[in-house]
Amino acid sequence: MSKKIIALIVLGMFVMALGLAGCGSEKSAAPEKKVIRVGSETAFAPFEFQDEKTKEYTGFDMDLIRAIGKQMGYEVEIVSMGFDGLIPALEAGNIDVIASGMTITEERAKKVNFSNPYYKSGLTIVVKSDNNTIKSFKDLEGKNIAVQIGTTGAREASKVKNAKVREFNNPPEAFMELKAGGVDAVINDKPVNDYFIAQSGSKDAKVVGEPLTSEDYGLATSKKNAELGEKINKALDELKKNGEYEKIYVKWFGVKPAN
Ligand code: ARG
What we know:
The chain is α/β, with parallel strands linked by helices. It has helices spanning 3-28, 60-72, 86-91, 106-109, 152-157, 171-179, 190-199, 226-241, 244-253, and strands at residues 35-40, 49-50, 57-58, 75-80, 97-98, 112-114, 119-121, 123-128, 144-148, 164-168, 185-189, 205-208, 215-217, 220-222. The strands form four sheets. The chain has a five-stranded mixed sheet. β9 (144-148), α5 and β10 (164-168) form a beta-alpha-beta unit. The longest helix has 26 residues, at 3-28. The protein is elongated, with a radius of gyration of 25 Å. Mean pLDDT is 92; it is low at 24-28. The structure holds arginine. Arginine (ARG) binds at residues 40-41, 44, 48, 83, 100-103, 148, 151-152, 170, 189.
């Protein structure tokens, strides 16, 4: 055999070995898990909050998005951040979904895609238990109002004449300021207000008046990822049909969903 042929055979064997090695390493690697990164502001009980013992994120939204992930064959990773940072994070591609009691609004829908509504909500006013002057929206005129930054509650408070609106990172901080006497009222989502008052034994605070708004919560996805949005809607539909959605709803609210 000529040296040339031997060289070619050796080269051929070398290339084959490389190819085989490549296959081998691919096969032995763990199958890649599909993960969706879910952004949430996690001081919003009973929708998202940290379990004191396990430190896990828990709540209605957390159960729902995990069930949706499971239905789609994805693992869910919760990323906790400020509420006003959620849409920018989605736009920047740092998260894939927002599950954060987020109200579907026209303004937000210009930036993100919303799923079908998954929870009916609205805003209410919370005052101290011994406050007998604030009974409705018009009584808020000229008062100090606490809200969570970037929320529909903040938007509603901005409509009150001569009011001083103070923005907090989350509703618990706004409630604390109410308790301390720093503000006269909190405007925030009804189910969160009701849960807070029930938890605190209704000694410090009370809800006054009728709900100010009617709002629907939706899960938000990037406009660049319409496919994920569709998958989420499909999974949500399936969970509504197979009773899983109702189970999660009853677990957190003690009653069946209205529709
Ligand atoms: N529903 C209100 C909104 O969309 C408040 C949501 C706040 N959510 C939260 N996880 N902190 O503006």
